[in-house]
Specification:
Helix content is 38%, strand content 23%. The protein is built from nine helices and seven strands. Strand 1, helix 4 and strand 2 form a beta-alpha-beta unit. Helix 2 packs antiparallel against helix 5 and helix 3 packs across helix 4. The chain is globular and about 50 Å long. It starts with a helix and ends with a helix. The structure holds S-adenosylmethionine. The site of S-adenosylmethionine has 17 residues, from strand 2 and helix 6.
Length: 234
């Protein structure tokens, strides 16, 4: 399914990431199940094996190279879709206590089957971030919230920061074109502060990872409902 191990390994090497046979076997299972399931349920537009390796697996794994994820931390992946970025990270870092959140039921059904196949014991939640983060069991309960390709930085901050405990962080994986600093006001209102902006090349594409430190509690009026978030971004 994926390219042969030696070739895959050479792609990982370009980012000084080590690819063991054991991890590779899990990524193979993941890729095969993703492509098979994608024939009945739309999970991803990327189905070519080398592209899955580069744009889904290596891109996701780079987050844990560029951002410190403390040992045994709790992490919620908001709008995880088919499990990116957090499932490839969890394959490398099984110490992380993972929660996967998506608003589409059919994707969470896929995620449950995938986790069972991979032996990953993630908590899987079907719901909208703006509803789930209001529940006391999830409000400011995570060391890390992360998201890739879900919304612009201002909207995403309102979806993700309420999950993060004070002193934790929210990490957003972004394309090259977004002006991160235009969301500064939203981040401040939600109790955060941009702590780093890392830019890198994912093979021939430019990428950014923004880390936002949670410095104070998020006011209970946030997040607002999805219509207000969209209509009146902070
Ligand atoms: N993060 C994945 C990735 O990088 O491949 C999926 C990205 S996909 C473009 C966006 C995902 O976010 C979809 O699976 C969608 O169902 C989910 N989503 C969008 N808005 C959401 C919300 N408010 N709460 C939870 N999930 C949401």
């Amino acid at each position: 399914m994926l390219p042969v191990f030696e070739y895959a390994s050479s792609l990982f090497d370009q980012y000084e990431l080590e690819l063991s046979h054991e991890i590779y076997e899990k990524l193979e299972v993941y890729a095969a199940f993703l492509v098979e399931y994608n024939e009945k349920i739309n999970l991803t537009a990327i189905t070519e094996p080398t592209e899955i390796l580069k744009k889904h697996f290596i891109d996701s794994i780079l987050l844990q190279k560029y951002v410190e994820l403390p040992l045994n931390c709790s992490m919620i992946d908001v709008g995880t879709g088919a499990g990116f970025p957090s499932i490839p990270i969890n394959i490398l870092r099984p110490d992380i206590h993972l929660t996967l959140l998506d608003s589409l039921k059919k994707r969470t059904v896929f995620l449950q089957e995938l986790c069972d196949k991979l032996g990953i014991s993630a908590q899987i939640i079907h719901g909208r971030a703006e509803d789930i983060s209001k529940l006391p069991e999830y409000r400011e309960k995570f060391n890390i919230s992360c998201a890739r390709a879900v919304a612009n930085m201002s909207v995403l901050s309102e979806l993700c920061l309420p999950f993060v405990a004070v002193r934790g962080k929210f990490v957003a994986m972004k394309g090259p074109n977004e002006d991160i600093y235009s969301s500064q006001n939203a981040i401040t209102l939600l109790g955060g502060e941009i702590s780093s902006l890392i830019e890198y090349d994912l093979f021939d594409e430019r990428r950014k990872i923004v880390s936002v430190k949670k410095i104070s509690q998020t006011a209970t009026k946030y997040p607002r409902n999805s219509a207000r978030i969209k209509k009146y971004p902070l």
